[in-house]
Amino acid sequence: MEAIKRTFAQCKEENRPAFVTFVTAGYPTVEEAVDIILGLEAGGADIIELGVPFTDPFADGPTIQSANTVALANNVTIEATLGMVKEARNRGLKAPLLLMGYYNPLLSYGEERLLDDCREAGVNGFIVVDLPPHEAVKFRNFCAKGGLSYVPLIAPSTTETRLKLLCKLADSFVYVVSRMGVTGATGTLSTGLPELLARIKQYSGDVPAAVGFGVSTREHFLSVASIADGVVIGSQIITTLSKAAPGERAKAAEQYCTKICGRGNSPKGQKNQVSSNSEAVNGADGTNGAVQTNGAVQVDGPVQVDGPVHINGTHTNGAHTNNAHTNGSVNANGVEHTNGNHSKLPDQIVVEKGEGEDPELFPARFGEFGGSYAPESLMRCLSELEEGFEKVRNDPDFWAEFRSYYPYLGRPGHLHVADRLTEHVGGATIWLKREDLNHTGSHKINSALAQILLARRLGKTEIIAQTGAGMHGVATATVCAKFNMKCTIFMGAEDVRRQALNVFRIKLLGAEVVPVQAGSKTLRDAVNESFRVWITKVDTAFHIIGSAIGPHPFPTIVRTFQTIIGEETKTQMLEQRNKLPDAVVACIGGGSNALGMFYPFIEEPSVRLLGVEAGGDGLDSNRHAATLTGGSKGVLHGSRTYVLQDHHGQIQDTHSISAGLDYAGVGPELSAWKDSGRAKFVAVTDAQALAGFKVLGELEGITPALESAHAVWGAMELAKTMRKDQDVVICLSGRGDKDVESVAEELPRLGPQIGWDLRF
Ligand SMILES: Cc1ncc(COP(=O)(O)O)c(C=O)c1O
Predict the structure, then answer these.
(1) What is the E.C. number (predicted)?
(2) Which atom of ligand 1 is nearest to the CA of 469?
(3) In the predicted model, is pLDDT for residue 760 greater than 80?
(4) Looking at ligand 1, which residue's alpha carbon is closest to its atom 7?
(5) Is 734 in the pocket of ligand 1 (CB under 6 A)?
(6) Cβ count within 10 A of residue 434
(7) E strand residue ranges, 338-428
(8) 606: number of CA atoms within 13 Å, CB side?
(9) How far, in Å, is the centroid of ligand 1 from the Cα of 661?
(10) What is the pLDDT, as a whole number, of residue 189?
């Protein structure tokens, strides 16, 4: 981290901003990657950020997203990225280099190993886009042990409490997002920037601040340079590379950088470059006794901060101690001496849970799962949402308003015995909870309606949503029509194709459908896109999420609004059978109908909870979407949960006959119930789901959604193992009209496996 500090100090001495450049590792080709890095330096870059590609970069705009896709297609892993750094160092790269990326690939690489390998390769630090402050403290302390820097991101919307904590974390510089939104060279800078920078200076004790997002031309560079210590450019470099011919890209990067910053490091400028190599390669901080020139708070010894940090903007101007450096600006208690040699000890910031973060109104986590792994620019609207939800969930007026729409929703829903199915299976009595009879044909309307009521209370004027099977899209478009709100629905292009009927229904309701062409073109990509767009419209737009996924507080909000399913079931079973059911069964996409059905039974140990996932072509085929049964722990769409990922932490493409279950993540609360054993999860293949679809139609006269057909099959298998005096309830989450075309298409492939031939 010292090299980064020295670079900023030297730039300050030369009376110019530090030029920080970003490029995605291995974009556009692996062969040119090192030349490009060296080209950036030759063009005048003082610091290089090397993007570690990730399948789901939901804080990045289309330019960097497509660079990620290209790099992944070029098989760029963390190992490969580190190989590029190593080679660049061997070929003379002097500029400090930071890895910038998303948490999941880093987590999957293993933090200990990552640190060792980064030091060995010559990396100087990290920027992790989606690391929440509390996790960042751990990660930052961990980096500090190895002399690597952790650079926090701050957005115009960062609240005062978070600003203080994030500034406290900064050990070399702060990265300031200059405008609200995702990355992209738009050229519009936030007008509040000077004021934000002044506050950062105040809280960080004058740590340098570099400003990025949206800078693309020399004029932008100069205007940012007039107020910041550093200027970051990323998307425009990617665009420059995309336009250059093969073999010409390093030169193009160099020329662009020189044009922007008005200077170059090659060949003459090279000697002015601050050397960073020794620290990174040697792995030691190597700073004991080094004079710090620009007044950044320097902490060489272990500093344990027990209480909130009070930083009044005083700084030290070169003063330096080996121990906790407090000089009245940092209230640091409890200096720990572990081996007597202060200079070798890591600096430590210990933050009690919640301290410095915006207070949690209700738990953000379900055991180790959940949380808010979201870009900083989203954080304020997430806390606004949390506050709004906290108010309404305790407000009888809100619930009265919700209930006043029951006639519109078709609630209370029905619960009845499926007698022919029960007889056919020959085990426990099978009951159906008929969410398919709701207005719009699925459980999605429960949560969509409650969320739009919340949006209205928060004064929002437009709605953004995403959908997989289209049912959530239809439900959202419906409530938008009812409450006269502009509605934009993001949908993976593959889902648009599979669910053409629902797309048309959404349009009939006056909403716009935006097909998402990125990635796997399914729900996952639609979620990425809807979050990206939300970031750019947080003041006016409300994001109605379709399942119990995403960063806190979404999983709790959606589960709460779907709990109506389980509550009604409980009451109705007691009325009709004078006992609780022995088991409840629901299919799982993101988990909202399952959570809604299970939650009221969670404290009733006699009730078995069975979640049924999409087994696709089978768990051993890799073509499935069974996240809980076939996945591993990771971070996706802002929450820690089970995910389907490869061993590089890249999110896998999924497959299911049913679009609504075709998702690589799952609600974090279900992950917690899996680990606690409270709920059990099984995977049902496409063919078995089709058999469930067939049997419910033929025996009960009900065409279920293909999603719900998974639950039907899972419940049939379970009922067989139970006594006749026992009761199993299936959450029939939706009706199957939307799926009849898919079934017709799939019959030639799957029909023979289940003995179903409908040819005329
Ligand atoms: C009818 C139906 N059931 C179930 C699901 C799965 O979603 P979740 O797991 O959130 O209930 C969907 C998703 O689109 C759906 O349309």
Answers:
(1) 4.2.1.20
(2) 14
(3) no
(4) 589
(5) yes
(6) 18
(7) 365-366, 369-370, 415-417
(8) 7
(9) 6
(10) 61
Nearest CA to ligand 1 atom 15: 660
Cα 195 → chain centroid = 29
Cβ atoms within 10 Å of 288's Cβ, excluding its own: 13
The lowest-confidence range among 47-51, 89-93, 229-233, 354-358 is 354-358
Residue 2 buriedness (CB in 10 A; 0-12 / 13-18 / 19+): buried
Q: What are phi and psi of 22, to 5 degrees?
A: -115, 135
Distance CA 725, CA 267 (A): 86
Residue bearing tokens 């004058």? 206
Task: Give the nearest ligand 1 atom to 659 CA.
Answer: 14
Cα–Cα–Cα angle for 132, 136, 138, rounded to 5 degrees? 135
Q: What's the gap in Å between 750 CA and the centre of ligand 1?
A: 22
Q: Which atom of ligand 1 is nearest to the CA of 562?
A: 11
Asked if residues 139 and 109 have their Cβ atoms less than 8 Å apart, the reply is no
Neighbouring residues of 542: CB distance < 8 A, sequence distance ≥ 6: 451, 452, 454, 455, 458, 460, 462, 463, 464
Contact 466, 476 (CB under 8 A): no
515 in contact with ligand 1, CB cutoff 6 A: no
Query: Confidence band (pLDDT; 50, 70, 90) for 631?
Result: very high
Positive or negative CA dihedral for 565, 566, 571, 577?
positive
Closest atom, ligand 1, to C-alpha of 436: 1
Catalytic residue annotation: 49, 60
Residue 341 pLDDT > 50, yes or no?
no
Q: Is the CB of 471 under 6 A from ligand 1?
A: yes
Is residue 412 scored above 80 in pLDDT?
yes
Residue to mutate, 491, 502, 524, 707, ligand 1, most ligand atoms under 8 Å from C-beta = 707
Q: How remote is the CA of residue 443 from the centroid of ligand 1, in Å?
A: 8
pLDDT in tens, 277-302: 434 333 333 333 232 323 232 222 22
Tokens of 462: 């437009």
* pLDDT score of 433 more than 60: yes
Query: What band does 145 get if pLDDT is binned at 50, 70 and 90?
Result: confident
Specify the DSSP element, H or E, that contains 459: none
Lowest mean pLDDT among 178-182, 222-226, 504-508, 646-650: 178-182
Residue 709 phi, psi dihedral angles, 5° rounding: -60, -30
- Number of other residues whose CB lies within 10 A of the CB of residue 704: 27
589 lines ligand 1 (CB under 6 A): yes
* 468 in contact with ligand 1, CB cutoff 6 A: yes
210 lines ligand 1 (CB under 6 A): no
